[in-house]
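In line with agreed milestones, the collection of sequences with tokenised folds has grown. One record among many is set out beneath this paragraph:
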Amino acid sequence: MEPPLELLEFEAGITPKCRSTVADAAIDFTGGTLGGITSVYVGQPLDTVKVKMQTFPTLYKNGLDCFLKTYKQDGIARGLYAGTVPSLAANISENAVLFCFYGVCQKLVAKVMGGKEISSLNPLENAVSGGLAAFFSSFALCPTELIKCRLQAMREMATKGHLEGGLERLKIGPYGLTREILKAEGVRGLYKGLTATFLREMPGYFFFFGFYEVSRLMLTPKGKTKDEIGALKTVICGGLAGVGLWVAIFPADVVKSRIQVQSVSGTPPTFRTVFINILRQEGPKALYRGLGPTVIRTFPATGALFLAYETTKKYLSMFYDYLADSKH
């Protein structure tokens, strides 16, 4: 029987030490950064479809109709990959901060639970750590999400006459739009939808990390640890985590997207106002409009995110421990 990874590492003299919180946070930050980049390029086209269907549900029959019309009207770069730069900024900043604080919050939860080792935390305790970490990542995510959503829904806003300049506005990029918002509204203008972001992110990442850890536990073979399940199972666990997150928080995401897009003109509506208006005018089904392309997108995108994160974390941790060991 092949010896476990921990034994091989011990014999090689690179057994993980009790790294400092700063070192672990830096490793998690780097892993989250690379994971965020990977997930954007995998899932951006269907994220564009999701936002369009959330904000303008009557314009498209379904996700495929929205995908084809977007491609026909605006192509790949300005259509399906509209908002990629802010998406990269959003995902890199969110995931870097999220995974950085996830490790910190794991240590905090472990301490509260009687000084446990992080590796011995159960799925519920990891889920709580993820929910707490999402509070911090929301501040990094909200401004870039706002820019992304407005760029993705700009054609529909212009067509409906809600934008000055009409279709000419499609030429504006993320930097131009950011400067425009800062000039007109200041920094506060970039944080429209922050409350909705909190209401989406914190419970969402509770389910996200909870599903991920439960899946890893179930797929871990006897005699091995959850860190030894391999690349394919890691992708599957990440995909299931992403699906669990979006099914749980999709109504809040619909409300958030509408607030950020509709706030382009005048005072932004409140979360409660938008939520009630959707229920009254469009019915409960509207709160799940765009869920199909989101689930299709999130499985490979989140799987890729966790694969990149876990792989980066594994090798950076081994490298750090090797350097620390070589100094002694």
User: Anything to note?
Assistant: Residues 291-326 form the longest helix (36 residues). The two ends are 33 Å apart (CA to CA).
